[in-house]
Each structure stands twice: as structure tokens, then as C-alpha cells.
Amino acid sequence: MKTTDSLSSLGLRRALQGIEEGLYTALDIINACFDQLERREPVVKAWQCRLNREEYLAQYTKYQSFYEQSILKGLPVGIKDIIDTANMPTEMGSAIHKGRQPVDDAACVSQIRQAGGIVLGKTVTTEFAYFKPGDTCNPKDLLRTPGGSSSGSAAAVADSMVPVALGSQTAASVIRPAAYCGAVGYVASRGDFSLRGIQPLAQSLDSLGLLARSVEDIELMRGILLKQPSPLDLPAAQKPTKVVVCDGAAIGDVDGAMQAAIQSTVLELRRHGVDIIEMSAQSSGLLKELVDHHQCIMAYEVCRNLVQEAAQPELLSEPLIDLIDRGVAISYDDYLAARQQAEKIREQLWAEYADCDLMLAPAAPGVAPLGIDKTGAPHMSRPWQAMNLPVITLPGHVFEGNLPLGVQLVGRLNEDQSLLRLARWVEGVLPR
Amino acid sequence: MKTTDSLSSLGLRRALQGIEEGLYTALDIINACFDQLERREPVVKAWQCRLNREEYLAQYTKYQSFYEQSILKGLPVGIKDIIDTANMPTEMGSAIHKGRQPVDDAACVSQIRQAGGIVLGKTVTTEFAYFKPGDTCNPKDLLRTPGGSSSGSAAAVADSMVPVALGSQTAASVIRPAAYCGAVGYVASRGDFSLRGIQPLAQSLDSLGLLARSVEDIELMRGILLKQPSPLDLPAAQKPTKVVVCDGAAIGDVDGAMQAAIQSTVLELRRHGVDIIEMSAQSSGLLKELVDHHQCIMAYEVCRNLVQEAAQPELLSEPLIDLIDRGVAISYDDYLAARQQAEKIREQLWAEYADCDLMLAPAAPGVAPLGIDKTGAPHMSRPWQAMNLPVITLPGHVFEGNLPLGVQLVGRLNEDQSLLRLARWVEGVLPR
Q1: Which of B325, B340, B195 is nearest to A194 (CA)?
Q2: B121: domain CATH number?
Q3: PANTHER family from the entry (chains A, B) (predicted)?
Q4: ipTM score of complex
Q5: Residues 335-374 in A contacting B (C-alpha not used; CB under 8 Å)
């Protein structure tokens, strides 16, 4: 048996293989995760609500034969606290919903439970998955933000408390915390996963996301969520032939560290014979437009989703009230124009780069900023999210000694499987 | 003051105007609705759960000054029982969810409450808005189905128990019951309304719908749900210039009554100078393809939404189990191809009829079939729903003495406002 430390940091698929091979038991992994969690949670504060070790082990033992025959073997999963769970409150980071106990599991939670995953707990989210942070700290530097809104999921995974967690993204809520904490963060093409039981923020933009420590674990969880016949089957990684690089400058500020992360990724890709082209000024201009379209769509829809909450402004943060006020003032015609433009640009952009396999772009403006009262700027994700494209953060770069930073790969709509195979190849050439 | 009878059958907007003009009070309307409801509900069985008159009046009285200043003046609204309400159970027509009490209102329910509507109750739905009917009878002939899945909403509105009700449509769940009961049924372009708190069946197809007794009441409710600044403003009706007619034969069986309803509508339109063309054989062929695409998308998504329910097959109907089994067997690639084809056909079809304002099509194969153990065939709606287009049932035709039958108008994606203005004009030339 390995030491506790290395067991908690094993990837999900590696852990399952080791259990299968008899190197250790699921209980060894579970206990290692709890060891890590109990040591670190007092300072990282990734969990809004969770099972303690005794409760977890009691559940495991009660259904042990089911877990032993299941895909996920009873290993722990974290669930962002805007996703309904029938056995734990779902508070959405809002005082309005303190103690709110849903009656049903979200469909994604049911899929995980049926596959033998155990919901260890609910991870901290910003208020309604928008801006106002919870208490979570960046596990790599406790003075810095973990990013948001999937703050707790990114921190818990990056800190090896759980191998995987569910997140969600409407603007930058998976990609950015993954980049700041040093996790792999994946956002599915919109519409691919069931969102039943996930609190909507903006229906044209909301996507379910996953956080893990490797691309192969993302692929496994995606297979489970999509009810694929053999989610453990791993297709071969695919080397990209040609990649278009977006430096992000047209979207907003990008600091030296992120520029270096992009350049270093480009060098590695080139070194392995991947053809690299730069995004044209015209295409970059379209990305800039998309930032505005994203903000318009989001504001319009948020105020039409958070209807009962908007009537209690004394319990909402200022930024959320601002967003709601902006949304109410947007006309249907302007909103629709933004949606239609975003769709048009998506087709235009990928048509221009029809011979490319991937886009490479910054996942955030730079490393996690100091302070946990803000979650960092979301603009680096707005264009891709407005186009509903699948995206993934790959970590690997480290600055200032121990601050992780991830870059973002962007795929074609609904070609998520291909994106993940390509991303797994790229992951292999990045520093670990 | 008018007699009770005519007060309950007043349209929503007419009732509000009369209250404004001092002809009667909101309480007169409310009491007239309860008179009608108490007389008819024992045989029509439109309600799954509801306030009784005393409870309703107590709520009205408690907040009377709010209601008096509100848009909807405290008038009653029916809510399909797959839409969450914080003060009443939401059982989705399923034994699995008997007594299920949601913690929050759906966003659409919050919008209605904030506009001064009172939720009179939850209307009967088929099991999870799919096939298995509840107890509701067609108010025009108690031996016949009201259609489904928005059975209770259509029956309650057509029978003048409430002026308006919310429904939803994934296949034919608003259009068909409206046609069978003699109500106006509208299904919004997918994505226009917030679906927060509405139980999803198939996310690529689900739309919120409205049932009322006139197009102008649909427009009013749509304005409220979209948070429009002046939902009471009524734009001028718009006469269509050119209409393309689909006889439905390529989609499936259409009986003599529906053929007559379409022909009579065409005659009225022609008589008023509207140019009419017939849908080409090629386009009709595309509609036939869409039926298959719709079934593929629906089965794939349903089994990935009803995850926890699928684990309790002993509490599900046979048709639903069949649907789930079919869905599990569909590959992601086949599913995606169906979605993409449906989108492509939508663009192709409306491009071919770019000079037309509307499509006219059967809303059902014919009048409501005898028996309440089935809800009639849904195929006449599958093509339009697969394309996510806005549609509306206009009643007016009557067969065999008293059996209503509606025809369907189809608009362009997201041009719902234009569809409704055109539909209001068409409504004016149809028999009443």
C-alpha cells in the first residue's frame, strides 16, 4: 500500500485501476482523501456542507457490495452548491437560500450516484454563481482567490481532497478557478448535459463543467454523465496538426505570466511538430465584440431567472443588483441581436480556421490575484462562452515559485470528445 | 354588473378593462370563476391541487391593496403541475413524486405573482408531461380526451374556470390539447422564457407555453413573463400577406374534420385577400424527416433527465419505460446528427418560404378521440417542435355539433411577437 499522501493525490482513473489490481482498496483512497481534507479544510474552506468521515464510511459500508460492483467504487465527488442534492442543502451562496433543502437530486448527481460515486459534500460557490465570493482560499496560496464561481470545486480538487468535482460556467466559472488553482477544468458544449436540478443563471450561457487533475478523469466523468455504454474506455490521445493561438490582447488585459504560459505552450507544441498560426486581427476583433454580446445576454437572462430573489435586494450583493438592473433595461430586440450575433460569429470564426484542430487562449488575465474578496476578471472566457463552445483549462505552468496558471483550449461546438482527446495529448507535452 | 356566467368566460384583458372601468370588481370575476369551477370540476377534473374559494379570498383580502395596484388585479391563473410552486406540491403526474413540495417558485410563477396573478392551483399533467394521462376529461365532451400533456390547463381555460394557464410542450403538449378543448395555445420559441423551476423532459425541445381564450391574452401573459415594460400595450394586429399551407399528410394521418378546418381557414384567408400557397412535396418530405429527428432527440434526452425515476420502473408507465429504453440505446453521434439536421431543415424551410408570413398546419390529426386513457397522437407537432419554432393553436372550428378543433400557425424562430400579431388578425376572421 502506498502512503496516505500519494493516495489522495492519485487521479480518479488511476485510483480505480489500483483498486482493480488490488494495490489498495477504495477505503484506503477514501480515508486518504479525508486525511487530506481534515488537514487542509480549516484553511482552504472549500466545502459549504459535507459528510464527515464517519457518515461517509457508514454510507459506504451500508451499500458496500453495490459500490464494489460499481464504476466509481464509492470514491468521493464534490458538487458545486448550485446543483441540487436531496440529502444536503443547496444554498447557492446566497443568504436568501440559507438551509434550502431540495427535494430531488439534480440529474447529474443521480448519474454519479448510480455509477457508484459518493457525494462527499457541496463545494463553495459565489452568490448564485455570479461575483460575490464565499470563504474559499486558493490552496496554493491562502492569501489569494481560488477564482469563482466554482471556487470550492477547483480548490478541493487541486488540493487533493477529492479526485473530481462538478462545477458550472456562465461566464468564466470553471476555466478561471481551474487556472488559478492548478486543476483541469472542462466546460461542455451547451446542451450536451442535462441541467435538470442545476440552478439556472442565464439559460443561453449556462453549462455544466467538471474539475479534475487530468484530462482522462474528465473524460471518464463525461462518459458517466452522458450515460455512455463504457465510460472507462479511453480512446487514443490525438496529436493536433494545427492550432490557432489567440493572445487574448483584444479581449482584455493579459499579464506577463499568462503571456509566458501561452508562449511556453506554443514552444512545446512547435517542438512536437504542431503547426501554429496566430489569430488574425479581424478574428480577434470578433472576440472583442463577443464580450459585449455575452454581457448583454447574461444581464437580460439573469434578471428573468432570479425573479423572486430580485424582490429581496437587501439580501443581494451590489454587483448582482447592478447586473439585474442592467438586465431589466435591455430590450428583447437587443438581447436577441446579441444571441444571433454570437451564433454568427461562432460559425465565421471556426470557418476561418477550418484547418485547425484547436484554439489556444489565456484562461485568465494572469495568476490568481491577492485577496479573497474578489474572484478575478472573467473576460478571458466570455467570448467562448457566448459561442457555447467546449473549453478546457490545462494547468502545468507555475510562476513566482508556486502559483499555478492554466491555459485554455477551445473546441468546436459539440465536438467535445475530439477536444478532450486533443487536450489529453497537449497535457502530455506540458510541464507537470 | 354582468351575470356570473358571462363574467367567468370573459377574457383576461377584457376582465381587466372592465375592472378598470368600474363595471365590476376583481372579486366579481374571481367569484364567477369559482362558481364555474365548483359546478364543473367534479366532472372535468382539471385540477391536481388547488385553493378553495375561502383560501383564495383570504389571500386576496390579505394583500388587496397590492392586487388593486397590480397588472393582473389578483385574477386567477392555472399552473401545469410540472412547474414548481412553493405553496403547493408539484407531482408531475407521477406516483414517484406524490406530495413532492418544491422549496421555490419557478421563475414564471414568480413573474405572475409579482404581476398580481394568484395561482389558483396546479393543473393535471400526464406523467412527466409524456403520455400517461391523468383524470381530466374534455370539457366539451366528457367521454373524450382533453389531449395532453397540458390536459388540465387546456380544459380549465376552455371551460372558463380560469382565463389563462401555463402549459409546456416537448412534443405536442400545448398545441393538441388547445385544439381538442377549443382554447388558444401558444408555444414560445425555445429559449425565450426562463425555464427555471420547470421540470425538464428534453432540454433541446422543452418550451414554456400558454393557454388562453384569445390571442391578446397570450400576448399580455407573454409580456409579463418577459418582464416587458408595458405588457398591457397591444400592438396593432397584422394581416398576413402570404401564407404557406401544410396539409399535414406527409407528417401522418389527418382526418376529414381537420382537412375541413384547414380548408375553411384557407377560404377565409383568401376571402380577405391573403395569398395562399401550398407547401411543396420536397418541403413536406423534410417535415416527415423531422418526425424521426424529434423522436430521436426526445428519447436520448429524456433518459438522461429522468435518471432517478428510471431506477424505479415499477412506478413508471410502460410507454415511458419504452421511451427510456430507446433513449439509452441511442448514440451521441446519432443524437447530435438529429439535432443538427433539425436546425438545418429549419433554415432551409423558412428560406424556401421567405416571402411568406406564416405557415398554416393541422394542430392534431382530428377532433379529440373518444376515451380518456390516451391523449391522441402527437405527430402533427413534432416537426415544428424539433425546429424550436413558435406555434399557436387557433380554435374556432366545430364538428359533430360541439367538438372544437383548432388549426396551427407556425412562425419564425424568435419572431414570436410578429407571430402573435398575425395570429390575432387570423383569429378575427375565423368563426367564433
Answers
A1: B195
A2: 3.90.1300.10
A3: GLUTAMYL-TRNA(GLN) AMIDOTRANSFERASE SUBUNIT A (PTHR11895:SF151), TRANSAMIDASE (PTHR11895)
A4: 0.96
A5: 336, 339-340
